[in-house]
Specification:
Helix content: 25-40%
Radius of gyration: 19 Å
Strand order of the largest sheet: 2-1-3-4
Strand content: 15-25%
Length: 141
């Protein structure tokens, strides 16, 4: 059985995880038969070992790991490969497949470019950006 492990950085603010939880929920809705776990490198739980263990306990023998990072940062290049090797050692009957950072996928780049254009095309900026009566910092919607 296949499993999917989404692996994000983590943060002190629990609200930071909301987009990743939404992605996991969207994936689960699209693929209800696929066991999905979300794990974090630091500051949040579960960690990758716990999440991978949970997928293995469900009977997953192939787990695809998708780093939910915008780019192949030092974490993705330096920290993730040894973590995957530790998972392989802890679960020798499970095949772990490590993918490239999600943000480097052409479809993600296109989606972010499109979303950026959507954002900037719906805003009317003041003629005089220095006019104190018309702040140029937009409120969060």
């Amino acid at each position: 059985m296949d499993g999917l492990l989404l692996f994000a950085h983590g943060a002190r603010d629990p609200a930071w995880a909301a987009p990743f939880q939404a992605i996991a929920a969207e994936l689960q809705g699209r693929r209800p038969e696929l066991p999905i776990a979300l794990a974090y490198l630091e500051l949040m739980t579960p960690d990758i070992a716990t999440a991978a263990g949970a997928l293995a306990a469900l009977g997953c023998t192939r787990i695809q790991v998708v780093p939910m990072f915008l780019g192949a940062s030092g974490h993705v290049r330096r920290d993730v490969p040894p973590l995957i090797e530790s998972l392989r050692a802890a679960h020798p009957r499970v095949l772990f497949v490590l993918h490239d950072a999600i943000g480097e996928q052409p479809s993600v780049i296109r989606a972010m470019a499109g979303a950026t254009l959507d954002l900037i095309s719906t805003v009317t900026l003041p003629a005089d950006p220095l006019d104190p009566a018309r702040p140029t910092v937009l409120p969060l919607s």
